[in-house]
Design goal:
binds iron/sulfur cluster; 2 domains; about 475 residues; 8-stranded parallel barrel; about 40% helix; alpha/beta; 8 strands; about 10% strand; 18 helices; TIM Barrel
């Protein structure tokens, strides 16, 4: 199956042409289909379609086929069922975070679309809504036959500007033109808030916001929504991280409303790590949404005051909505396009994965500036430090999406005081980022390393620096 699937991507150009030909021919058959009856036509088409597409593409019959826009690589083969580009956990060799023996379906999609490059320019990958689970197993060709549009959604036109009176502290800081500093805190394994408040207290008055992770790495902790609400109630500015791994669209939308009602003003939409690396590898991953479809839904709740179903909300939330980006893993060439999709879907600020490789990041930002994306969203870059080269090496090997260049590892390894050297690298990285056009701020991360991060923040005092651009 895998061999045939990869063959189809290698021959994406020919298959793409075949698809175009059939798509043009199909509406001519519509009168015949109507004469036979659409349910009967669908019943006749379904087994033929299943056999052809299963053989060629390892098709899962999602009923909302987008093969022609994804280089003949079926996105349903993605272990997280991502519909809008790769996750941030793709391995350095282009293999899947979850299934290391299989190439990432989205890396393959990139290869396929490049093979049909001319068509790709004309039909860039559309923004796809969350999959309609009712259509699983149904024919997609029946839609082509009826000339119905594909399931892509239109991004909102223009940017919604939140009135200043309704902007939270993080949004105001981002709009102020000065450098922004945020920090990540993991919620505790505790039924009491004391440990969480002690961790957050280290950063009081030092940062613009505190991100609360949502089961990071697939590990269980106090819920992100509850921890964010606790911080908000104690005068902190939380960023409520929402991963798509553990809850479906009904639960997530309910949590967004609950968080807003409890004073949370910032959310970060992410797909989430797989369960396999966490402390509950036997759990069922949900992935009803991906980060892009979650952004679109959250935007709809804020801007149109409605659920994904279209049902109206009594009171719409006013949220500053963010997303993540990972410029440090393959497919490097598609990472800026992926960022653009998230901005089109509604992200107003971006927080990146750990930046240990300034060369790669510089390349990424060059393209970001070329597309003007730094004027459409505030880009806040992830940085961090660990105690030793061994700890950093472990993180690079075991935490999906973290890339640490060998030259950096050996610099720390050869230092007499490795912890001090790693700290120095972090400070140098922050200085370099502060001087880079398009960077709006830094986001410090480091599980159980909060006191070191607080020391770095106090020493560098980056919030006093001006930014080299404004959004
Ligand atoms: S690496 Fe991520 S995007 Fe790629 S196939 Fe695996 S889960 Fe999907």
């Amino acid at each position: 199956m895998l061999a045939l699937r990869l063959w189809s991507v290698r021959h994406a150009r020919g298959l793409g042409r075949l698809y175009e030909f059939m798509a043009r021919l199909a509406p001519l058959l519509a009168p015949l289909a109507r004469w036979v009856g659409l349910p009967r036509t669908e019943a006749l088409l379904r087994p033929v379609e299943r056999m052809a597409k299963t053989t060629l593409f390892d098709c899962r019959m999602c009923g909302q086929c987008v093969l022609s826009a994804t280089g003949m690589s079926c996105p349903m083969n993605c272990a997280k069922e991502m519909r809008n580009g790769p996750c941030g956990g793709v391995r350095t060799d282009g293999r899947c975070e979850v299934q290391p023996d299989v190439p990432c379906a989205w890396v393959e999609a990139g290869n396929g679309t490049k093979r049909i490059a001319a068509d790709h320019q004309a039909h860039p990958t559309p923004l796809l809504p969350a999959i309609d689970q009712r259509r699983r197993g149904a024919s997609s060709w029946i839609h082509v036959l009826q000339g119905r549009p594909d399931p892509a959604f239109q991004p909102p036109v223009g940017q919604r500007i939140t009135p200043e009176s309704k902007q939270g502290a993080l949004e105001q800081a981002c709009n102020s033109g000065r450098f922004v500093v945020t920090v990540e805190v993991a919620p505790p394994d505790s039924a009491k808030p004391a440990a969480l408040l002690a961790r957050a207290g280290l950063f009081a008055g030092q940062v613009d916001a505190i991100n609360i992770t949502d089961g990071a790495g697939g590990n269980c902790h106090m819920s992100s929504v509850a921890a964010s609400a606790i911080l908000a109630a104690h005068g902190h500015v939380p960023v409520y991280q929402i991963a798509c791994r553990d809850r479906n669209r009904i639960a997530i939308q309910g949590d967004i409303l609950g968080a807003a009602a409890l004073g949370v003003q910032n959310i970060l939409c992410l797909t989430g790590d797989d369960v396999s690396q966490g402390d509950h590898p036997q759990a069922k991953p949900v992935f009803d949404l991906d980060a892009v479809s979650l952004l679109h839904i959250a935007r709809g709740m804020c801007d149109r005051g409605e659920y994904a179903s279209g049902r109206q909300l009594q009171d719409a939330p006013d949220l500053f909505i963010g997303a993540t980006a990972n410029p440090f893993v393959p497919p490097y060439a598609d990472r800026v396009a992926n960022l653009e999709m998230k901005i089109m879907a509604g992200a107003r600020f971006i927080q990146t994965q750990f930046c240990f490789d300034l060369v790669l990041f510089d390349d990424f930002m060059r393209e970001v500036r070329l597309r003007g994306l730094h004027h459409r969203a505030h880009i806040i870059v992830g940085v961090g430090t660990l105690k030793s080269a061994k700890a950093l090496d472990w993180m690079a090997r075991h935490v999906p999406g973290v890339h640490i260049p060998p030259r950096l590892l050996s610099r720390i390894e050869n230092a007499r005081d490795q912890q001090r050297e790693a700290r120095q690298v972090c400070i140098e990285t922050m200085d370099a980022l502060a001087a880079m056009e398009g960077v709006a701020g830094i986001h410090l991360m480091g599980h159980k390393n909060e006191d070191v991060l607080a020391g770095i923040i106090a020493e560098c005092d980056l919030r006093k620096r001006p930014r080299l651009h404004t959004v």
